[in-house]
Each structure stands twice: as C-alpha cells, then as structure tokens.
C-alpha cells in the first residue's frame, strides 16, 4: 500500500477515494474548513464538503461559504490523525476550536461516531506518512 505525506494534495485525494464507500446519512451535510496552525511549513488549510454523509469534495485551500471552521494546532492535529487523541475530546478540552455553525457540526455526530467512519480513520492512517 502506498503512503502519502500527510496534508499533501496526494493525501487529500487518496483519503477522498477511501471515503467513497461511506454510507449515506440523511441530513449530515456541511461545508467544513480545516485550519491547522503552526505546522513545519506554516498554517495549512483544507476543506471537506459533505452531503448526506458522503464526502463529495475535498481539497487544499480555502472554501468559500464554509459553515464550520475547525482550528487545531499542528501537534494536536497529528495526534488526532494518529488516533492518539479523540477529536471530540480535543473539542471538549478546548484544544480544537470551532468557528461557525456548531449545530451543523453536531448534525455530523452520527457520521463521526459510526463504525464505518472509525474504520475509515484507520484506513486513512494506513496510507499516511508523517
């Protein structure tokens, strides 16, 4: 299995391919901007567009019309990606900031707490090089 440098364009694209098998979940729709701060090469922006539980677009850069922005420092983002820190715990501890529509974020909990999503996280970790 090939590995891709975390947060590179290739990693984003391959992660999206892995997400294609996620089940549809009515109402789980959001435009999410991720901002990773303090990385080795500075801040990193990437985004996801999710419709009914399906990732329909993801890319590096800024998303016009994002509804939610998740802000994390680089070290915590690595821990989340390595499954060493739960994203929900990071939020509750104030280690992940949420800007925008928090209700929209809460509507995604059925997706992020599902066994299929947990498996996707493991699959993405398998292709990730830090």
From TrEMBL:
Gene3D superfamilies according to UniProt: SCP2 sterol-binding domain
Domain (SCP2): residue spans on this chain: 20-108
SUPFAM superfamilies cross-referenced by the UniProt entry: SCP-like (SSF55718)
InterPro entries: SCP2_sterol-bd_dom, SCP2_sterol-bd_dom_sf
Entry protein name: SCP-2 sterol transfer family protein
Source organism of the structure: Acidithrix ferrooxidans
Lineage: Bacteria, Bacillati, Actinomycetota, Acidimicrobiia, Acidimicrobiales
